[in-house]
Design a protein that fits this description.
The complex is a heterodimer. In chain A, 34% of the residues lie in helices and 15% in strands. Chain A is of the alpha+beta class. Chain A folds into 2 domains: 4-79, Roll (Ubiquitin-like (UB roll)), CATH 3.10.20.30; 88-158, Orthogonal Bundle (DNA polymerase, domain 1). In chain A, a hairpin with a 2-residue loop joins strand 3 and strand 4. The N and C termini of chain A lie far apart (41 Å). By secondary structure, chain B is α+β, with helices and mostly antiparallel strands. Chain B is 30% helix and 26% strand. Chain B has 10 helices and 12 strands. In chain B, a hairpin with a 2-residue loop joins strand 10 and strand 11. Chain B is globular. Classes of the chains: A alpha+beta, B alpha+beta. Chain A binds chain B through residues 1-2, 4, 21-22, 24, 43-45, 48, 51, 54, 57-60, 62-65, 67-69, 111, 114, 128-130, 132-134, and chain B through 1-5, 7, 25, 27-29, 32-33, 35-37, 40, 45, 47, 49-50, 72, 88, 91-95, 97-98, 167, 169-170.
């Protein structure tokens, strides 16, 4: 079994770790780095609960062999709040009751962050398309879509771009 | 049991590794689910992420897309606007940030909608192995020790695409229809109705003779298809709705 040293910048912190062949980015985040916001759901890229930003793009972390992204920048839900202050997407999810059991929430928020970074004023249809890879098995999609639209508005009003 | 993930820096290096055995991995959307459940019967994976196979080139009317180009990159390229509805019909945005053109070409139906589009476009496929490079046609077999490096096709003038699925987003195909209706270059390709994308030859012949005979062509589209049952639809249903979706695709109806 050939392990490999992999360097990642995770939530602005340099990390170096040893990964066995085929270890997913998700396993590294959860089991090596202790960042458990990204959830292990289907392990097939179908549920979206492990969505993180890989070089600013949302991806299912379970589908990424970590060795292939040596040197990449990764952002997880743990790296969104600044100085303990929730950002607009997190606040909107909290205040608009967009979370039921919470299992999909981290992936939903990371997908929403990527959407709003590229499209600060999305339509409802664009939000729905953006989260089409994030399954909420409580089926609480309506408040989630509303929270993302609300977050976009909050962010536009605050003048922050991302 | 998996013991190594190779990271070749060229297609030639990847081909050398592949000759010794193992599986290629592009975006990981097909291979990693197997890795995650320990169901990988090979010891080596050969990643194409750093093999220099990503990129899109448009020279006059000819498009070249590297096999490791992500679906998201195709979907964001303004020169390939006609393919954007195809890309947006495949999986979800996060999966499209990983999934590659080469992978989509080789994945079995009812996935692989871009492969259906490439069949309609009469795409050429560049392939490399340790024995050298060759160019084939989309739909032709690729040997286990060969690596698809790029696809080329000419931009179509009259392009039609439609995918019927269980939901508006992120669902495999019930039926996929892609068509180029440029006179002699009339080609209709179907997905979801056989294990691989197939041409609707009978429908093409009817349209070549009479471009207005859309209803007749749609009825003929099912000739020779071998539809299958899966979780998305039964074979019976696929065959039943195929003419409807072919007609709607050709007429641009919603």
């Amino acid at each position: 079994m050939a392990s490999r040293i992999v360097s990642l910048t995770v939530n602005d912190r340099e990390e170096e770790l040893l990964a066995k062949a085929g270890t997913s980015l998700l396993t590294v985040l959860r089991d090596t780095l202790g960042l458990t916001a990204a959830k292990r759901g289907c392990s097939q890229g179908a549920c979206g609960s492990c969505t993180v930003l890989l070089d600013d793009r949302p991806v299912p972390a379970c589908l990424v062999p970590v060795e292939t992204v040596d040197g990449a920048a990764v952002r997880t839900l743990e790296g969104i709040a600044e100085d303990g202050e929730l950002d607009e997407v997190q606040s909107a999810f909290l205040e608009d009751f967009a979370t039921q059991c919470g299992f999909c929430t981290a992936g939903m928020i990371m997908t929403a962050e990527a959407l709003l970074a590229g499209n600060p004023d999305p339509t409802r249809a664009e939000v729905v398309e953006a989260i089409s890879g994030n399954v909420c098995r409580c089926t609480g999609y309506e408040p989630i879509v509303a929270a993302i639209l609300d977050a976009a508005e909050r962010r536009r009003e605050s003048g922050r771009t991302a | 049991m998996l013991s190594k993930v190779h990271l070749p820096s060229s297609a030639a290096e990847a081909a050398g590794l592949l000759r010794a055995g193992g599986w290629l991995i592009g975006g990981g959307t097909v291979v990693m689910p197997r890795v995650n459940t320990g169901a990988v019967p090979v010891e080596h994976l050969i990643s194409l992420r750093h093999a220099g196979l990503a990129g899109i080139r448009v020279d006059a009317d000819t498009v070249t897309i590297g096999a490791a180009t992500t679906l998201a990159a195709v979907g964001a390229d303004d020169r390939l606007g006609f393919l954007h509805p195809v890309i947006r019909s495949i999986a979800s945005p996060p999966v499209r940030n990983l999934a590659t053109v080469g992978g989509n070409l080789l994945v079995p139906q009812p996935h692989g909608d871009l492969a259906v589009a490439l069949l309609a476009l009469d795409a050429r496929v560049d392939v490399v192995s340790v024995d050298g490079a060759r160019t084939g046609l989309v739909g032709e077999p690729v040997a286990p020790d060969e690596i698809v490096t790029a696809v080329h096709f000419d931009l179509p003038e009259n392009w039609h695409y439609r995918k019927a699925m269980r939901r508006r987003h992120n669902s495999a195909a019930i039926v996929t229809v892609a068509a180029v209706l440029d006179g002699e270059r009339t080609r209709i390709a179907l997905g979801g109705v056989a294990s691989r994308p197939v041409r609707a030859y009978a429908a093409e012949r009817i349209l070549r003779d009479d471009p207005g005979a859309v209803a007749e062509a749609a009825e003929a589209a099912g000739e020779g298809v071998e539809a299958f049952d899966d979780a998305y639809a039964s074979a019976w249903y696929r065959v039943r709705v195929l003419p409807v979706h072919v007609r709607r695709a050709l007429l641009g109806e919603d």
